[in-house]
Amino acid sequence: MPPVELLIPRYTCPTLRIEEQPDRAIYWMSMHADLQQCPGRACFRPELIGNILDYQRVLTRRLEIESSNAAGGLAHVVLASCSDVFNLGGDLALFCEAIRRRDRAGLLTYARRCVQGVHAFHDGLGGRAHTIALVQGDALGGGFEAALSCHTIVAEEGVGMGLPEVLFDLFPGMGAYSFLCERVSPRTAEKLMLEGRVHSAEELHKLGLVDVLAPKGEGVRVVHDVIRNHRRIPHARSAMHEVVRGTAACHLDELMRITGIWVDTALQLGEKSLRTMERLVKAQGKRAQIGTMATPAMLPAS
Question: Tell me: the pLDDT tens digits for 249-279?
Answer without folding.
Answer: 689 999 999 999 999 999 999 999 999 999 9
